[in-house]
Structures
1.
Amino acid sequence: MARICARFDVVGLLLGLVLLSSCSGAELPILSSSSPLVDFGEVVLGESVEATLTLANQGNVDAEIVLPIVSGADGADFVVADAQWPVTLAAGASTEIALSFTPTRSGTLTAVIEISAGLASALSGGAGASASSGASLAVGLVGTGLQAGDDDDSAGDGDDTVGDKDDTVGD
């Protein structure tokens, strides 16, 4: 069983991030992301919007990133758009992960994307290879599903009051 170590740095403390990696004494990948949260904003039901998440390997060895897992109550509304997995991420390098949000209901929708990596040589090794010998990272996903015409700033669309400072007549 691998021990898990938590690594804090100044940026991580400010953003509330904890980078996880195993503590076997060997050189391992260390994953970090450009943001602890990807906000897709407001999207009309049935439409899609894309966003990218930058993933970096701050470790001293190459990492093999396996297909990220999206989970949570609204996980089905968020999709990893990249098709080629696994991805080898060199030590000190970064890559972008394309994400898509297609809301199926109104309201705030949330999920988590979990990204796991192991030593490139270990994960490509076949049976028994596991990302648990490397690093993992979780990033929050959020978006708001809107009914068509429900934009809170159009006078007369039934979801606002003229003159209440969240709309302008005629816009």
2.
Amino acid sequence: MIDRCRIEDLWTRGEARALSRMLADRRSEWSSYSVDRDLPQPCGAALAILTLRELGAVASDPLVAEMADSLLACQGPRGGWESPWVTALVLKALAEADRDQAAFARGLAYLASSQERRGGWSGQAIQGYHDTAFVLTMLGDLDDFRQAVDLGRILDWHQEGLPGNQVSDDA
């Protein structure tokens, strides 16, 4: 059973990767991804924030705030975290933690600028449709996200990838 005490214990001991694996294993949106691999450091804090909020913690909870601050501290110079899918996870957590709107806007700008010409995202750990599906799963319900990226390109790219609709780059 996952509870606040277990999350806080792993966080306090600096075991972000163990925290990531434990929390990722219980999330349905991760079911198609292999969580046997090491997840990037920000994933532990982001997953913990989402789980704590699901367990009833408020955005102003000191543990939620500490984890959110750790995420803000590792935001990259281009506005993202590690890759598009990690950025989407972190942004979802920051939205739940109600933290730093300027950092959130920089993260959205990073996603918009890293959106591929054909519409999707392809990060370092999970490729193509998986990255794009994950980004949409994490952020698709947020108005700010829908305004920042080109959803039409995503839909076109998805349609092209369906069996019978593949379009060659040479065409």
